[in-house]
Specification:
Number of helices: 12
Helix content: 40-55%
Strand order of the largest sheet: 3-2-1-4-10-6-11-9
Radius of gyration: 20 Å
Distance between the termini: 47 Å
CATH topology of the largest domain: Spore Coat Polysaccharide Biosynthesis Protein SpsA, Chain A
CATH superfamily of the largest domain: Spore Coat Polysaccharide Biosynthesis Protein SpsA, Chain A
Number of domains: 2
Strand content: 15-25%
CATH class of the largest domain: Alpha Beta
CATH architecture of the largest domain: Alpha-Beta Complex
Largest sheet: 8 strands, mixed
């Protein structure tokens, strides 16, 4: 977008699958924006509840709402379909069980884009555990440069978990996604990990939106993110392995990004069957050089354990920590 005086047109892509209890809150929180130059692309991914009917009712009420009905193909496929249909200058992904807070988000993003013309805007989510418990991590307080050269600041953004493995905390220039074929991998769970790992190499400029408007529903029955399966962990393993194939040729920021994913894999190692643990163990050992302080704020927490442990015990300790964290999250929803 070369004309700085031109208002930005946003495409908001919302994959929909069996979220009848949350969908209206999600869409209403976007439609209530004071800024009106946007489209919402709802991709109904073969829902078997009333989500399909809800989508259609929104399309009939407002011509900014576009609904695509398709057979179930998974979250990646639904996002890709929405991205290919989008016409905006910038693309925003929103999960249909989450919602936005505030009425001036797009208006303020329009101003930010006119001022700095970034390839990428990063915003931090607030995590919804219950109506009385919504938390924002607000790591941007550690960052002095809120906009500028992404490649110069990428290591700091990765360290403070601002450039993290999420699609919905990023607003991206659409041409970058389309021209570089940055689509989500099909058949994977935690597909955001691979997508963000590829995205990082195509961003030149960035800006940070200072407000936390995206409310991420941390605990929901049936949510993929709250059900860690054998397939989910093996998908993380294959994405990490693929990301590290050209270890010597990748930037230090990208290596640090994958180091944070490595910690996720170590933490979930004991959810795997004994056979799959044997399959991935040699690679886990070969990647232990990723365990260094200063790569990522979460990894630094792991290093507090690792300093006093042999590597072979680290996954077990992290698994115990994982169980404690899950129980704590459940308690916070009460």
């Amino acid at each position: 977008m070369n004309n700085r005086n031109k208002d930005v047109f946003f495409s908001i892509v919302v994959p929909v699958y069996n979220v009848e209890n949350y969908l209206e809150q999600c869409i209403d929180s976007i439609l209530c924006q004071s800024y009106t130059n946007f489209e919402i692309i709802m991709v109904n991914d073969g829902s078997t509840d009333s989500s399909s009917t809800i989508c259609t009712s929104y399309e009939e009420k407002d011509d900014r709402n576009i609904v695509i009905h398709k057979e179930n193909g998974g979250l990646s496929d639904a996002r890709n379909v929405g991205l290919l249909r989008s016409k905006g200058d910038y693309v925003i992904f929103a999960d249909s069980d989450d919602y936005w807070a505030g009425h001036q988000v797009l208006e303020e993003l329009n101003i930010l884009i006119k001022e700095s013309n970034p390839d990428l805007i990063i915003h931090e989510e607030s995590r919804f555990f219950s109506k009385k418990n919504v938390k924002c991590k607000y790591n941007q307080r550690h960052i002095n440069n809120k906009r500028g050269d992404f490649k110069k600041e990428a290591m700091l953004l990765v360290y403070y978990d601002l450039f993290a493995a999420c699609a919905w905390d990023k607003i991206v220039r659409r041409t970058i996604l389309i021209e570089n074929e940055l689509f989500f991998p099909l058949g994977r769970q935690s597909e955001d990990m691979e997508w963000c790992g590829r995205l990082i190499s195509h961003i030149d400029t960035y800006a940070i939106y200072p407000k936390s408007f995206y409310i991420y529903r941390k605990v929901r029955e049936g949510s993929i993110t709250n059900n860690t399966s054998e397939k989910h962990i093996m998908d993380v393993y294959f994405m990490l392995k693929h990301g590290l194939i050209n270890d010597e040729g990748i930037s230090e920021a990208l290596k640090n990004y994958w180091a944070a994913i490595y910690v996720v894999l170590l933490k979930d190692f004991y959810i795997l069957s004994s056979n799959n643990r044997k399959v991935i163990w040699d690679d886990l050992v070969s990647w232990k050089n990723l365990l260094k302080e200063g790569r990522n704020i979460k990894l630094d927490q792991v290093m507090k354990f690792y300093k006093f442990l042999p590597f072979v015990l680290l996954p077990a300790v992290l698994y115990i920590y994982r169980i404690i964290t899950v129980l704590h999250k459940k308690y916070k929803t009460l």
